[in-house]
UniProtKB/TrEMBL annotation, chains A, B:
Presence of keyword Manganese: yes
The keyword Protein transport is assigned to this record: no
UniProt keyword annotations, A-Z: Manganese
Superkingdom in the source lineage: Bacteria
Pfam families referenced in this protein's UniProt entry, alphabetically: HMGL-like
Signal peptide: none
InterPro entries: 2-IPM_HCS-like, Aldolase_TIM, PYR_CT
Residues in Pyruvate carboxyltransferase domain copies: 6-258
Naturally occurring in which organism (per UniProt): Kurthia gibsonii
SUPFAM superfamilies in UniProt: Aldolase
Protein name: Aldolase catalytic domain-containing protein
Amino acid sequence: MNSNQVKILDCTIRDGGLVNNWDFSVDFVRDTYEALNNAGVDYMEIGYKNSPKLLDADGCGPWRFCDDDFIREVIPEKKNTKLSAIVDIGRVDPSECAPRSESPFDMIRVACYLKDIDKGLDLINQFHNLGYETSLNIMAVSNSINSHLVEALEKIEHSVVDVLYVVDSFGSLFPKDIAYLVKLFKEHAPSKRLGIHTHNNLQMAFANTLEGIELGVEFLDTSVYGMGRGAGNCQTELVVGHLTASRYDMKPLLKLIDDRFVPLSKEVEWGYNTAYALTGLFNEHPRSAIAMRKTPEKDQFYPFFNKLTSVETHSDI
Amino acid sequence: MNSNQVKILDCTIRDGGLVNNWDFSVDFVRDTYEALNNAGVDYMEIGYKNSPKLLDADGCGPWRFCDDDFIREVIPEKKNTKLSAIVDIGRVDPSECAPRSESPFDMIRVACYLKDIDKGLDLINQFHNLGYETSLNIMAVSNSINSHLVEALEKIEHSVVDVLYVVDSFGSLFPKDIAYLVKLFKEHAPSKRLGIHTHNNLQMAFANTLEGIELGVEFLDTSVYGMGRGAGNCQTELVVGHLTASRYDMKPLLKLIDDRFVPLSKEVEWGYNTAYALTGLFNEHPRSAIAMRKTPEKDQFYPFFNKLTSVETHSDI
């Protein structure tokens, strides 16, 4: 694919917020926006757009809610890089949201599990009617039965959603799995533009993203220095450095990494390690690995493997 | 490919020795052999077989020379895992080497640049005549002119070498480059079994190895916990964990990582970081990144990028 056709959507603040409970300062986020804009990155996902009525703040930073007025204070003058926010089923009330023409946001992304597809498409419909670009990010497809996925894809094909994402929630997919899913998505939702969101549990985040590009996926989720839940995401700087489109420039991202993300990485942990590889290999949510990395036994991978494979852990099978 | 057909060649002590100047204790190496054998790994590369007459020890550990008697003391009873050593052009005298029947080694691997192909094949010939399995590892193919490579492949096709390696010395190759090279190697050296040796500068070591497997590459170089020069190699534990052949078992490797490699990784550095990604993106030897990681500016990637791209650095172009 011609790299002029792809769109990079940096989700550092949103997915990275899962690491530090969205505890980013306004200056940190502002610097990130400036660097992403100067690097030619197409979209910045600045957080979740949840309703404070439906989700308790519980010590989370403001990027968990992304109030329009607050975001306008953070980024008073939007430049080329568009803004997006993600919403969860049951945590947002679209009737409280301003139309796109009065909002700092350009795109609203709906994350949902396959079982919630109807609710997801209902939200998509409401945000579409408010004028937003929309995407649907179906989580945990690696744990779905194919027939359920196909049924959902056929509903999506007949919906108003703009972009449909292949999401590797558990970082358990390999390039050939991405190829399989992209083919399936194209077969059953042929009119939709595709996106890809990867996790780096098996060090496949960048490789899977490249496989997506080869197969015509247009929207690439990335994060600066890979910051994201658990093993993190595909590095924005690698994708920007690799793509040949002249609008992309890696240097502003390197400066941002030096000034902001290296220091942050000394305070909170994200990125590949063997514990995340194990949950990826077992196609499991990384929550057990995330918990284990916060204990004194954080580097004891053999007992962790035994725990993951013990009868007690899998007593529901 | 059926994973029963592949052979895993663990080169931790050899390539990892480039990180710590081969300063591994005998117990460390013995534990590594035991774990690799219990994990079902097919070969262990225990070091370089250089002649002390031709290469000054210069503070290096004994794994830089791999004297037969010494290796027999380390591993008095060889089990299923075979032993290999690598040799460099001009640093080994095959006439000093015992035949395979009197040596602990099963395989001798010759590493050479394309310009030294005749010298490389001459060494291969001598080790073959001593009864060893042999491989030829052509380094830095990403910096070779195709016509030179094709000429070399045709010589290799007519040689006695058993295994021919695709080596990504600079960690600059992507799966589609591996596919291109494997096709080229198969076209011009069709009778040879193929191997792959990757580096993780762009987090492609495992992805490139998987691409090799898909295309029929049989010998997979890996290292425990990825320990190898600069960004390191493809992790043995990931390949063992991923392949379905029943002889492979990840658990002994996880125990070894917990007991030996996690503590070592706190003392010496290897593995992916942004500096190695930059030399990979620029298709350069990682030596500048290795040097930079030993300075107080080890996390200053923006100035490092500027140095890599400055006129002064590239005054020879």
